[in-house]
Amino acid sequence: MSAEYPNLPVNLLPDPSSPPWLNKGDNAWQLTAATLVGLQSVPGLVILYGSIVKKKWAVNSAFMALYAFAAVLVCWVGWGYRMSFGKEMIPFLGRPDISLDQKFLLDKAFLGWFPSATMIYFQSVFAAITLILIAGALLGRMNFHAWMLFVPLWLTFSYTITAYSIWCPTGWLSKKGIIDYSGGYVIHLSSGVAGFTAAFWVGPRANKDRERFPPNNILLMLAGAGLLWMGWSGFNGGDPYSVSVDASLAVLNTHVCTATSLLTWLFLDILFFGKPSVIGATQGMITGLVCITPAAGVVQGWAAIIMGIMSGSIPWYSMMVLHKKIWLLKQVDDTMAVFHTHAVAGTLGGVLTGFFAHPKLSRIFYLVDNWQHYIGLAYGLQSGRSTAGFKQMGIQILGVVFVVILNIFTTSVICLLVRFIVPLRLADDELQTGDDAIHGEEAYALWGDGEKESKHNSVYEEFPQVVPKGGAGQVEMA
Fold first, then answer.
1. 208-217, 261-270, 304-313, 444-453, range with the lowest pLDDT
2. pLDDT band for position 102 (50/70/90)?
3. Residue pair 58/105 in contact by the 8 Å Cβ criterion
4. Nearest-angstrom CA–CA distance, 129 and 438
5. What is the pLDDT averaged over residues 263-289?
6. Residue 59 clears pLDDT 90, i.e. is over it
7. One-letter-per-residue 3-state SS of the chain
8. Can you give the pTM of this predicted structure?
9. What distance in Å separates the CA atoms of residue 5 and residue 14, rounded to the nearest whole number?
10. Domain range annotation of the chain
């Protein structure tokens, strides 16, 4: 018996773990999608970063990604989620508050038919991957202690503003009707601009590293890239917040655009350089993923292919041609070219969304019957609603301008603030040595035959259960 239901036997009492509003299918998919996005970072980008750099930077690069993932999650439940999706404090930011109260976590989320705990987890992995993408511009020279300060500051004073403005229903750009299906603006344009700006303030790598920076393991790089690509099913497929037909369309469009972009980039490499580059194909994969993200569930399949052709060619041109001609691009050392793969591709995706967004698909995603919003220019011209189409294109461009200005300003202020506390850039001797000088650890250590005594032993080497017997021997690897 129950005090609330005194006349019902125990086997007929309502299940407190499944309130009437809970959709178990939606909740299961949302948790799965969140985990797929998390796997893009850990281990996806951890592996990709650790293998695409020189071997002396493998540990540091991978660890920058791993640290960011952990730090963001703690800050997110502490104050970041409520600043991004909570009650309005000002038109572009929510009130900071903790997100660990049991009643709040188990209540229905602000969107979708699942608890807030699921939404917080889902949104946390998006915030985390944004910081990890920024790290891509800073590999091979940023002081790790400076990075430890940069991550929570940038999350608090930049990411939350963009997320609230564009994704929160009460955000000012959200009210205007901007279309950012899954983070073309909030994640990719933001990380591309912030990464480039931070790279300017941190300064370049050592000259020797800038001149030659070969990957230490291309096959492992491809493994990380594969996790990134496949994880995008959750990245774009989870944003309808339901197991819907729109989620299915978003997943298919994502992979079609990405494959087209990769092939386009590969074709251009062969046409102009004579060789099919694996690294180039990976860059084309990334630009395709980024470009389709703001549009994934609101465009038709043929539009996704066109977007793939453009995302495989326009960022290719900006990286391979314009980068060598524009003074500012040549001055800033952007290790992973996040300006081209995320800022350029993210801008391209946002603008093309304003052109190709199908009004019927937009209504399915946004669950509104408003013909004045969410209509691409192409369909506005076709249906005689050109004013609405041009308005949507204007809103998309306004979003680009807002995100660019915000991230140049906030990232610059944060870098200058951190610089007052610790140096942004590693010392010259640390730049020459890399991982061993920074962490006392190296990525490639072989024990037994050919072992060589290390000058800097890891602090964990006294624990035999952690480090294999024989010490921290190492050999030089090609």
1. 444-453
2. confident
3. no
4. 24
5. 96
6. yes
7. CCCCCCCCCHHHCCCCCCCCCCCHHHHHHHHHHHHHHHHHHHHHHHHHHHHHCCHHHHHHHHHHHHHHHHHHHHHHHHHHHHHHHCCEEECCEECCCCCCCHHHHHCECCCCCCEHHHHHHHHHHHHHHHHHHHHCCCCCCECHHHHHHHHHHHHHHHHHHHHHHHHCCCCHHHHHCCCCCCCHHHHHHHHHHHHHHHHHHHCCCCHHHHHCCCCCCHHHHHHHHHHHHHHHHHHHHCCCCCCCHHHHHHHHHHHHHHHHHHHHHHHHHHHHHCCCCHHHHHHHHHHHHHHHCCCCCCCCHHHHHHHHHHHHHHHHHHHHCHHHCCHHHHHCCCCCCHHHHHHHHHHHHHHHHHHHCCHHHHHHHHCCCCCCCCCCHHHHHHHCCHHHHHHHHHHHHHHHHHHHHHHHHHHHHHHHHHHHHCCCECCHHHHHHCHHHHHCCCCCCCCCCCCCCCCCCCCCCCCCCCCCCCCCCCCCCC
8. 0.90
9. 9
10. 24-428, 445-478
| Residue 385 exposure: Cα atoms within 13 Å on the Cβ side | 19
Kindly compute the dihedral angle of the four CA atoms of residues 29, 154, 190, 403, in this order, to the nearest 10 degrees. 120
Check residue 10 and give its pLDDT.
54
Tell how far CA 70 is from the center of its chain. Answer: 15
374 Rama sector, left if φ>0, alpha if ψ -120 to 50, beta otherwise? left
24-428: in CATH 3.40.50.720 = no
Record the tokens describing residue 446, joined without a space.
């072989």
Of 60-64, 80-84, 155-159, 454-458, where does mean pLDDT reach its minimum? 454-458
Amino acid 5: pLDDT:
52
Estimate to the nearest angstrom the gap between the alpha carbon of 444 and the chain centroid. Answer: 28
Chain mean position to CA 65: 11
Residues in contact with 11: Cβ distance below 8 Å, sequence separation at least 6, in sequence order? none
Phi, psi of 115 (to 5 degrees): -75, 160
Is the model's pLDDT at 70 over the cut of 90? yes
Its sign, for the CA torsion 160, 162, 166, 172, is: positive
Q: What is the pLDDT of residues 5-21, one digit of tens each?
A: 566 565 555 566 788 89
